[in-house]
Amino acid sequence: MEWRIESDAPIYSQLAKQIRIGIVSGEYEPGAKLPSVRDLALAAGVNPNTMQRAMTQLEREGLVFPQRTAGRFVTDDAQLIAQARQTLAREQAEAFLTAMNSLGYRHEEILSLVTAMVEEDGHGST
Amino acid sequence: MAVLECNGLSKRYGSAVALDGVALKAEPGRLLGLLGPNGSGKTTLIKIACGLLQPSSGTVSIAGKTPGVETKKLVSYLPDRMCLPRHMSAQQLLNMYADFYEDFDEQRAGELLTRLDVRPELRVRQMSKGTQEKVQLVLTMARRAKLYLLDEPIGGVDPATRDFIIDTIMNNYAQDAAVVISTHLISEVERILDDVVFIDRGRIVMAGEADDVRERSGKSVNDLFREVFRC
After folding, report:
1. Which residues pair with B149 in a beta bridge?
2. Interface test with A, best of B186, B192, B222 (most A CBs within 10 A)
C-alpha cells in the first residue's frame, strides 16, 4: 500500500481512511490477517502509537477485529464492507460536487459532463 | 507513572531567565517533541533532567527519582553537539559505552554501525560530520534506557541522514521508555511525535497530543509553530 499523509489533519484518521480504502477495494481481503501495527507503522513512516489509534478506530467501526495473540483481521461481514464503501464513495462525490460548484457548474452541466466522460471511458472499465 | 516530570521548574543564569515555571510530563511508550525557537530553554531543560545543571527552583523527577547518579543509569542523553573523543575508533567507542553503561546493547550498536558502513577501525576524526552524528545517535539509542533525551538530533545533517536518524529513534525504544526530542525542525519529526510541547522564552505556551493539536487547529504542528512564534 502506498501511504499518503498530509500534516494538516490528524494522522490517525488519515491512516484509518487509507486502511478502510484498502479493505473496500479488496487489497485487504475479507477475513484476511492484517500486518502488525509495528510493520504498518514502519511502512507508513509514522509512530506505532498513531497506527494503534487508527486500528482502534477501525475496530470501533467493526471493519477489523483483534483475535487474542493471533493479530488483527479484516471483517468478513460483506454488508459492513459494502456500507463502508458507500460512505467513502459519498465523501468523494461530495468533494467533487463542491469543487464543481466552486467553478460555477450547475447540476445539469455536471451530469452531462460526467455522462459524456463515462461514455468515452466506457470500453476501459466495467 | 511519568518517566519524566517537571513542576514549577525555573533556571536563572544571573539575571537571565532560561526557564520560568515549567511543568511537563513524558509518559512511557511515547515520543514527546520539545519544540521552541533558539534560546527558548530547550537545552537548559534537558541538561537539568540529565543532572548536568541544577535548577534555581522547582522539581524534576525521573521515574520518581531526583536527577543524580541513580538516574544516569536510566537516562540516555544525546547532546546538541559532538562530544565523542576524536581520536577514538568506532570499536573503541563501543567498548567505552559497554564499559560505562550496564544497559548498553553492544550487538545492536554493532549492527547499526554496520548498516551505516562504519568500519570498526574508523576513527571519529576520519568521519564526515553526518557520520559522526549518526554514530553518536546509534550509541545513544543502543542503550536500553527508560528515558532518551535527544537535543537537536537532526540539526545540521542532510535529508537522507535525517531519515536514518528518525528511523533509528523510532525503532529502538522499548514500550516502557519515553523519548524527548528537542528541535526546531518540526516538519521533519511531525509524523512521529505523539505529544508536543511548545516552549517560548522559558515558558510552556502549549502542550497536547499531536493529533489533537492538528484536529483542533486544522493545521500541521509545523504551521501552528510558525504562527505561534512569528517574529
Report:
1. B77, B180
2. B192
Q: Let me know how many helices (H) and strands (E) chain A has, helices first.
A: 5, 2
Q: What is the pLDDT of residue A125?
A: 55
CA distance B209 to chain A (A): 10
CATH number of B4-228: 3.40.50.300
Report pLDDT digits (tens) over A45-101.
899 999 999 999 999 999 999 998 889 999 999 999 999 999 999 999 999 999 999
Q: What are phi and psi of B60, to 5 degrees?
A: -130, 140
CA nearest neighbour of A17 among A5, A26, A33, A29: A5
Report domain extents, chain B: 4-228
Chain B residues closer than 8 Å to A45 by CB: 191-192
Angle between helices A11-24 and A48-61 (to 10 degrees): 50
Interface probe, candidates B170, B176, B188, chain A, greatest A C-beta count within 10 A:
B170
